[in-house]
Structure formats: structure tokens, C-alpha cells
Amino acid sequence: MSFSRCDFGRRALLRLGLAFSIALSLQFGSLQYVGSAAAQDSSTVRIAIPLGFRGLDPHEGVNPRAEVTLQSNIYSSLTRITPELEVVGDLATQWEQPEPLIWEFELNPAARFENGTPLDADEIVANFSRMFDAELGFTFAADLKPVIKSVEAVTPTRVRFTLSSPYPDFLRRMSYIYFLDTEWANSHNPKLEANASGPYRLVSFDPEAGAVLEANPDYYGEQPAFSNAEMKVLRSPAQRLTGLLAGEVDVATILDPQDLKQIEATGEFKVGAIDSSRSVYLWYNTTKEPFDNKLVRQALNYAVNVPQITETLLSGYGKALEGQVFSPIYTGYNPDLKAYPYDPEKAKALLAEAGYPNGFTTTMSVPTGAYVAGDQIAQVVAAQLAQIGVKVNIEQMPMQTMTQQGNNPETAAPMRFVGYAAYDMSARGFLIYFRSAGASNQAKDPGYDKLYEAYLNAETDEEKAKLVAEITEYMRDFAPMLFLYSQPTTYAVRNSVEWTPRPDDWLRAFDMTPVAN
User: Could you give the CA distance from residue 359 to residue 388 in angstroms, rounded to a whole number?
Assistant: First the structure.
């Protein structure tokens, strides 16, 4: 892999006389949240974030509902996905594919960071070099490392990517790669500070409480409709409900479906739900007994009545997964597969065949407040598994804790209640999670790895489609998880705010506009 930088001499020239200042707040509770009076402030939108932040560094990425959402408001990407899921330009004003393995992007010449440094082709090259540096250990773009052969600055405003294999969804994948000022990052802490290039710049940041943003006057694109934005960490559905009713937030998602009628009854909000790109399942740790036995994994799939769960706890908004990890919203969805039917007697028979006629005791880790009705659904799943003799001890914890534990087979629970999504809406973007090399995947399987590698190396779209069908059929049988449902995005938006909820869970302040009085 090579990274070529043109010697434009821009750094030395443009750093002269440029000053950069940032207000950074690091103590818990330092954000000054105001009450219902702020609902009348048409210049500010207040957004509930369901998770704490792990940092601001865009090369660490992590979670789209927290870190990546915040980063997308303050940093730039080559392309952008609209709420209607269309690919449009961000930094890139146009692009072309002169050869099957080459993509070239023309960049907006006005793009720069708030300290004045240009965000040009040279900087794009430097960012990919940083992302792929093995010593730095970034994982957010790990899937791109074997795909991108080289990145070159052709001119100050033109960057060329040479790929090692075809990547039909490359434009979509580029929409969530964000760029920072790499020289600035050498003398600052990009986990806690930001040098913005996007619609907003950072005023203050507290990983546990939230962030305050203000419109970036030097942004090369259209100024956001709200000149200020506050992102407030409210970890549980109950906190988000309280924040809405108390007038402390204007926009919230991942609400308990049972609460939507109460919110709507106030007359102050638009509420509803849309299909999201996120699939929820119990991911098995196959390095631990009895989940190293395929019959056990299959048995548990027969033991849970998923349609009943979606009709009751999700108020009919969610849909049972049809024996595969992604929903029809994805390219590559396999319409020929069907969900495991609810059949507790078959589940008991499989357990007996596997050597567990009396069931067993196990543990399920659940991230508190991270998914729509997730805490309650986990309890119902455990109760249904108990009916076939499987006693489940539920361990609730913050998402960050579960993620850290899940990256190690020794600390990962035998079952994890998780929801995953691919933000390019492609099979490729989703299937990468299940490689044995994937840090969060403890359902190791060489058979899957072989099929996935063949898929990556397929030369035609027809071959790729055929292999995706093979992979999904294989996964249904191998059962690396208990397939549950595609999560709905439940939402509430104050009447003074116009916003189209997104299936990919992003909460971008620049997608929101004030409603004229």
C-alpha cells in the first residue's frame, strides 16, 4: 500500500499567522443545560444521545449513535448519505471511475479546518496513512486496509484511490470516513479536542454528559439552519422521555414504543417509528460451552417467539429477522430464507440430542438503554429460554463496558444482546463483522471465513450476489446467533423542529431546521 503526497509547501505557508482556539470542558456536569424556556430559542436544537462518548477522534469511529454522529457534525467526508439514502458529495464536488479499480475525487477548493489549514488532497492522503498505521491501531477503517492499494494526491484538489479488488459500494463507504488535520493532531489530543472542517465547531465536550456546538463560519458548504446545537447524553429511554417532557431536549430516538402515545398526547411533538438498518440478536461466544455445539445454538432459535415480541414490546414496529443478519433494506438481502419457527418442543429435542436434556445455565450481557425496549425484550427472551430448561442470568452494563468485554473471548459473555448495522447499507458492510478476525466476533468459524474471502475476491456482481446467498444460507444453519429482529427507530421531534428520521440512526444537527412561526 502506498500513500503519495505532493509537495505543495502549503503547511509552512498557511500556518503563518493562523491561530486556533477551542473551549474545552472536561468535568462531568459542566454542560449548562437549560429547562423548557430553551424550547423558545429558535437558534438552538437540543438532541438526546443514547450513549456516552468514547472520544472525538474520527479514526476511532466506534458507534454511529454517539461518536460518529458527533464527528459527522464537525468533520468532513468525501461523500454523504442523505436521509433518503442517496449518495451526494461533501468534500467531493464530483467523482469518476476511469477504470474498474480506480476512483478519483475532485475536492472543494474552499474546504479548510477552522485553524485555516486546507483540507485538500494532500490531507486526504495523510489521513489514510494515519488510519492504516499499524502502530496506531485504529480499527474503524480496518475493512478498507486490504482493499485500498494506494492513495495519491494528483493535484491539490484531486485525489486518486487505486483498489486491489472491485468495491461497488465504495462511494457509500467513503461517506463515513472523516478527516482531521493530521499535523494539528500531533500536538493536540483529538480524543478530546476538535479542529473542525464541517458544519459545526466544538464549543465544549464532556464524554459522559455531551457536547455543545456552534455553526462553523468558515464551513465551505451551506450554513446549518440551527446556529447552535447541544448533544445531551441520556442513556435510558426513561431519561430521554423525561428530557422531552421537561423541555430539555427537542429530538430523541430509541424511545420505548409504549411511551410514544404519552409524548404525542402533549401536543408538542411529532412521534413515530421507521425501519432502521440495525439488526438485533443474541451473539454467541462459541469459544465457551455449550455454544460450541451447533445443535444448542439452533435449539435456542426455536425457543424464542420473536413475532410475539415485536407485536407486543415493539408495538408492531419491528420485524423478525428472516434467518439472516440483515433486513430487506440491505443490498444482498436473501428473500429465500425464512425465520426459525417458534417450536419449543423441537428446541428441547435438539438440546437433548446435544447432550443437555435438562438444559443448562448461562449468562447474557445486555447494554442498558441502548436499544428500543431492549432491556424488557432481554427479560422476555430469558423467560422463554427458561421454558426449555435454559436458565439465563442477565448482566446489565453500559454499552462501552459490554463492547470492551466483547472484544476478548475470555471476558465476552456466552450471549451478548447486540444490535449491528452497516452504514453503506450493503451486504459487504455487514458481513465483515462475522469474520473470525473481527475483534467483536467470538463466534469463530473457518467455514464462514472461507466463504467471505471468496465473496471479497469475486470479480462480478453476479458472482458476489451468488456468494452472499451462500453465506446467508450457511449462517442460518451454523447459527452464530439467536436471530431476533430489525430494530425500529422510534422518535419524537418537537413541533418547532423539522427533521426526517434516518434508518441509519444518525442524529445530525445540520439535517434539522426550525419550523417558521
Answer: 7
pLDDT at 35: 39
- 285 and 371 share one domain: yes
* 179 has pLDDT over 90: yes
Give burial (CB, 10 Å; 0-12/13-18/19+) of 189.
exposed
Q: Taking CA 504 as the corner, what is the angle to CA 516 and CA 197, rounded to the nearest 5 degrees?
A: 70
What is the distance between the alpha carbons of residues 267 and 300, in angstroms, rounded to a whole number? 43
Same domain, 287 and 368: yes
Place of cell 491501531: 137
> Does the reported pTM lie above 0.85?
no
Grid cell 438444559 in the structure block, residue:
359
| Domain-terminating residue out of 201, 229, 257 | 229
Domain that holds residue 347: 275-488
Which of 309, 433, 324 lies closest to 371 in space, CA to CA?
309
Task: Answer yes or no: do 222 and 309 share one domain.
Answer: no
SS3 state of residue 404: helix
Let me know whether 123 and 225 are in one domain: yes
pLDDT for 22 beyond 80: no
**Cell digits of residue 4:** 503519495
Considering the domain architecture, whether residues 214 and 69 belong to the same structural domain is answered as: yes
Q: Three-class SS string for 202-231?
A: EEEEECCCEEEEEECCCCCCCCCCCCEEEE
Q: What are phi and psi of 12, to 5 degrees?
A: -65, -40
Residues 42 and 176 in one domain: yes
